[in-house]
Amino acid sequence: MTVRHTPRRTVAVQLPWRLVDRGTRAGVPYSLYESRFKVYDALSSEVRTAHVQLLVPAGFDPSGNLNATFGQQPPSCVLHLAGTGDHGFQRRIELGFPLLKQNISTLVLESPFYGSRKPAGQKGSKLLSVTDLLLLGLLTISEGLHLLHWASLQGFASLGLCGLSMGGVHSCMVAGLCPLDVALAALLTPRSAAVAYCDGAMRNAIAWSALQDVEFDAARNSIDDSGARTSEKKIQPALQQLRRVLETFTDIRSYPMPQRQDAIVLVAAANDAYVSQQSVASLKQHYPNATLRFVPGGHVSAFLTQKPAFRTAIVESINRVRLV
């Protein structure tokens, strides 16, 4: 089943930035700003407030205009979306620091249902329901589009998206729904959430017993990381229902194509237990003009050891849309 996604007109987000840090890293002066905004009100108070940080070369005031500060060489800006279990900002900000040498700023959105945006009763990354998983995606996409719209008004040289694992899925969706020319670096990214939750290692993190004989529009279709296994035969009805839901709403192939397919760089791990090689091949087939690179290791080891390769992918993708 193909879901039709029609992007709505984006209203400019007002971002009241405050400076939280400034200094020099590896000889490059930087400033770090933080802001908050809301897209939807019909959610718990913790979840609905988006938290975002912006790492930029020193001298840029995000309440002003880039051209006034940097003249003919304004930085590019890449929006980094969170992977599973990535709470707060620090991991992605650290990924972004070396990119300042390439004149690339880093915009980091804290994921809904993570960090300071966790709803009451949720422990760590254990989402309380399948509905929460879908809401996490919906909010990330909506907030990502608003942030790109804001960034497009600031005079950045070019815009891009980056995400690892779940963040890669959301980055692909946002890139497809965004009417702008944006670069895309999708890292260790499955074709859909079903690849990880129904076929990959995340399958062992589902509370299958809680999903038995429960309608998926109910509020308590639980996901946790207990790792408890139920017999394969017993979980099949819930497994197939979950697969249908996730394939319907999270299959990247059902979303529009990004405006700049030539500016897509895919990075996959050679021995990934979460993202199958079949999923990687499907994603490359969907993006025939994308560049695909493999790095050694599995999903976790690649995340820990391949940050230079991830940065190379970001730089390559953004350079393909950077204004001359």
Could you walk me through the main structural features you see in this protein, from its secondary elements to its overall organization?
The chain is an alpha/beta fold and 324 residues long. It is 34% helix and 19% strand. It has 11 helices and 9 strands. The protein has a 9-stranded mixed beta sheet with strand order 1-2-3-5-4-6-7-8-9, sandwiched between helices. Strand 1 (18-25) and strand 2 form a beta hairpin. Helix 4 (130-152) crosses helix 5 (166-177) and helix 6 (193-199) packs antiparallel against helix 8 (232-250). The relative contact order is 0.13.
Mean pLDDT: 86
The class by helix and strand makeup works out as alpha/beta
Radius of gyration: 19 Å
Uncertain regions spanning at least 5 consecutive residues:
1-8, 215-230
Across the major sheet, the strand order is 1-2-3-5-4-6-7-8-9
C-alpha termini separation:
41 Å
Count the E strands: 9
Q: Beta-strand level of the residues, as a percent range?
A: 15-25%
Largest sheet: 9 strands, mixed
> Which overall shape is indicated by the principal axes computed on the Cα atoms?
globular
Helix content: 25-40%
Count of individual helical segments: 11
Order of H and E elements: EEHEHEHEHEHEHHHEHEHH
Give the SSE layout.
Layout: E1 18-25, E2 28-38, H1 45-48, E3 49-57, H2 66-70, E4 76-81, H3 90-96, E5 104-109, H4 130-152, E6 159-164, H5 166-177, E7 182-187, H6 193-199, H7 208-211, H8 232-250, E8 264-269, H9 277-286, E9 291-295, H10 299-305, H11 307-319
Parallel strand pairs: 4-5, 4-6, 6-7, 7-8, 8-9
Antiparallel strand pairs: 1-2, 2-3, 3-5
